[in-house]
Specification:
This protein has 240 residues and is of the alpha+beta class. The chain contains six helices and 15 strands. The chain has a seven-stranded mixed β-sheet with strand order 4-5-15-14-8-9-10, with helices on both faces. The protein has a two-stranded antiparallel sheet with strand order 1-3. The two termini are 31 Å apart.
Length: 240
């Protein structure tokens, strides 16, 4: 199991699962502080600071099912990293005008990361071949020291799909890019028992092919059916 905690400095309710906390939602003003859902391996503890980014969401019909449609979309991160072939990958340039899902995670994650990649991969296969070719799924590691291009190239096809893009690089650049879309991540930490803990936001952000803005957010509980239902619209840049 992965322990999960909220990296943003905000109030939290009690645990619903061992080692897990969920953030309080300020429904009165319809604000989600980046949904603050994080995943980690090991026995993490203490309080961690996040970016403090705030995403404004619609209080009406735009928030349905697993998807949260943002009233104030995120700008795509200005990330230039290294892909699984060891080549430079400019995220904005390479995904410009394409429907894109971005997720920050790591290959040693025991549950949330592979589950998220698997759910998206299975749902993607339900799209038409033309739409499958359009959809870009980008996995950015939060553990670049261990997640080399070769490691990502081996893990992604098994956890998700061979067409998914895996990116690694300097941790500070990755952390800054995640912060641009309201996702808090912390440097991996080695515990006394040797376990490496990697705290990271578990959100998937969908970027529109028409505006290149991140306008839809999914939490870790989004299912195969949720993605299968929404992907045809996301590919077109429509609200789910």
């Amino acid at each position: 199991m992965s322990a999960e905690k909220n990296p943003t400095p905000q109030a939290e309710d009690g645990s619903t699962r061992p080692g897990r906390r969920t953030p309080l939602i300020v429904a009165a003003v319809a604000i989600v502080a980046a949904l603050g859902i994080t995943a980690a391996v090991g026995l993490g503890g203490g309080d961690d600071k996040g970016s403090g980014s705030v995403a404004v969401v619609s209080g009406g019909d735009d928030t349905t099912g697993a998807a949260t449609v943002l009233d104030r979309p995120f700008t795509k991160p200005a990330l230039v990293l290294t892909d699984t072939k060891g080549e430079k990958y400019d995220l904005r340039e390479r995904t410009k005008g394409k429907p894109t899902l971005i997720y920050f995670g790591y290959t040693h994650c025991p549950d949330v990361c592979p589950m998220t990649m698997s759910n998206i991969a299975i749902a993607k296969k339900q799209l038409s071949k033309a739409d499958q070719d359009k959809l870009q799924v980008v996995f950015v590691t939060t553990d670049p020291e261990r997640d080399t291009p070769a490691e990502l190239a081996k893990w992604l096809p098994a956890a998700g799909d061979a067409s998914f893009t895996g990116l690694t690089g300097d941790f500070s650049a990755i952390q800054a890019g995640a912060r641009q879309i309201g996702i808090g991540i912390d440097p991996p930490k080695k515990q006394k028992d040797g376990t490496v803990v990697s705290m990271h936001g578990a959100q998937v952000i969908a970027f529109s092919p028409t505006t290149d803005q991140g306008y839809v957010l999914y939490g870790e509980d989004a299912s195969i059916d949720d993605y299968a239902k929404d992907l045809p619209k996301l590919v077109k840049g429509e609200n789910p």
